[in-house]
Amino acid sequence: MSSLIGFSKPEAELVVQPSPVHLQLARPAVRHNAAAHFRRYFAAFEVIADFATIILAVTLGYFIYYRLDLGKHIHYPAKAVVGVASGLAVIIILMLDRVGAYARGNSLLRVRETEQVVRVSAQAFLVAFAVSFFSSFLFSRWLLVITLSLVPLLLFVQKNLMYLLVRKLHSKGYGIEKVLIYGSGHTGRRVYSVLRRSPKLGLDPLAFVDDNPDKVGASVFEMAYERRRPASVVQGPITRELVWQYGADLVVIAIPSAPHAKFIETVQEVLAANARVSFVPGHTLLSDAWVGYEDIDGVLLASFSKSSRWMGYELAKRFCDFLISSSLLMVCSPLLLVLAVLIKIDSTGPVFFRQLRVGQNGRRFKMWKFRTMTSGSPMYQYSPNVSSDPRITRIGRFLRRTSFDELPQLLNVLEGSMSMVGPRPEMPFIVEQYKPEHKQRLRIKPGITGLWQLSGDRASRIHENIEYDLYYIQNRNFFMDLAILLHTLVFAMRGV
Question: Which helix (H) or strand (E) holds 232?
Fold first, then answer.
């Protein structure tokens, strides 16, 4: 979060404070330094873990290659295997560092981290394949293919274990910085949820500060299906005394519509307390005025730099969509048949539900789903957000919980009206209410899954969390799509 646009207190201004105040000013700085040391040590540990994981993957790949007696069955000395594995590990780590994999807030719902691992692994092995054609050293293509599969897989597992480890360490108080969130509205709650769900940041939200006296004393919960981990709201405005009282290292201004004078006054008070300040900018950006968002584990900042898009990306994505959807339809056909029979037995009405949705560039299309509600339910209303809704059938509750009701949309992907990954398509009456920033969602083809579906903000409506779609639109690439599909698979297997 420190990489959010922020300000730091000039050193010359610290010495002019009276002695009692100076003691309080020192405490956040000391804790910030301790947290910075923790992050450096943990980043070094992560590099070592990546190095060991890559060597293990290459060694395991050679063992599998040797045992399966593949190809020409070339035997390599143990020293050669370890040497090549070490060299490859150094190259991959340098490439990961170059794309920011070891930065503090590098991942968005950990999808960005997975994308980096998949992309860098593929790039490294493309180079290895090229070298194998021109080198006098005899390489086994089979060994390269096996290793290409194992390296990103083991790195994915290892980084998830590292994620659990850093959560455990932060829960014991190591590497934590204290945060106050100014504003307890929707934006403030989103910031709070991001910090709670992103332990790698090491930022502990203590409380909300709000100028509205009616909100003081209330508890604000994390955005999720369950009401958990609340924080209280205290009386604002932000003052240096309040920052000292809570020992806060960082204040996040989560009021995008705050008047300029109020914003400047808050920044000055935070800096006077020797704390750092970050802010969430307004989201109302017209057409091409917004051109990018920087993610800090889900808190997205508007930027004004056009992103490059590989000219063959759309063609490659369409090819993959066709290949994946056709393959899944064939593999899942027995499951689709069983579900169709269960729907027919459970309630009267058609098996499938076809609804008009708005796709790329505002084009309308019929989206396929398994029917999960009674046949008499209105077609064009907001979807139920609780499983106890009387409109939902018994089998419908199961289909919604497992997302099996979305499987028929593979037909939409096959015909080209949808993609495997992209913003979810919405009903026409919702699109008619879109503001300019919401219309950005229509720039690309809608998808079955995306960043929004992987977030805790799924409890809210799609258009209320536009930042995930805007981030994807600006930063999408082939490897991010693969990462989102991988996380969706894990998500579905957990039954979320």
Answer: strand 231-235
Residues 181 and 291 occupy one common structural domain: yes
Indicate the residue among 285, 303, 321 that finishes a domain.
303
259 and 249 housed in the same domain: yes
Kind plus residue range of the DSSP H or E element containing 409: helix 409-415
Expressed as residue numbers, the domain containing 107 is 41-171
> Do 240 and 272 form a contact (C-beta atoms < 8 A)?
yes
Residues of the chain by 3-state class (helix, strand, coil), percent to 5? 55, 15, 30
Instruction: Look up residue 426 and give its DSSP letter.
Output: B
Distance of CA 48 to the CA centre of its chain: 24
Where does 69-77 have alpha helices with state H?
Answer: none
Q: Say if residues 81 and 62 touch (Cβ distance below 8 Å).
A: yes
What's residue 267's pLDDT? Answer: 82
SS3 178: strand
3-class DSSP state of 393: coil
Residue 36 lies in a domain: no
Q: Looking at the domain assignment, is residue 35 inside a domain?
A: no
Position 1 in a domain: no
Q: How far apart are CA 60 and CA 62, in angstroms?
A: 5
SS3 13: helix
Q: What is the CB neighbour count within 10 angstroms for residue 13?
A: 11
Length of the chain equals 496
Give the count of domains, the chain.
Answer: 3
Which of 19-23, 41-45, 317-321 reaches the highest mean pLDDT? Answer: 317-321
% residues pLDDT > 70 (the chain): 76
Name the domain boundary from 139, 156, 171.
171
Structure tokens at 449: 């899954």
Whether 466 has a pLDDT exceeding 70, the answer reads yes
Mean pLDDT of 299-316: 56
Q: How confident is the model at residue 352 (pLDDT cuts 50, 70, 90)?
A: very high
- Confirm if 195 and 204 have CB atoms less than 8 A apart: yes
Q: What is the DSSP string of 264-282?
A: HHHHHHHHHTT-EEEEPPP
Provide φ and ψ at 250, rounded to 5°: -145, 140
How many CB atoms neighbour CB 392 within 10 A? 20
Q: Is there a single domain that holds both residue 281 and residue 387?
A: no
Q: How far apart are CA 191 and CA 419, in angstroms?
A: 30
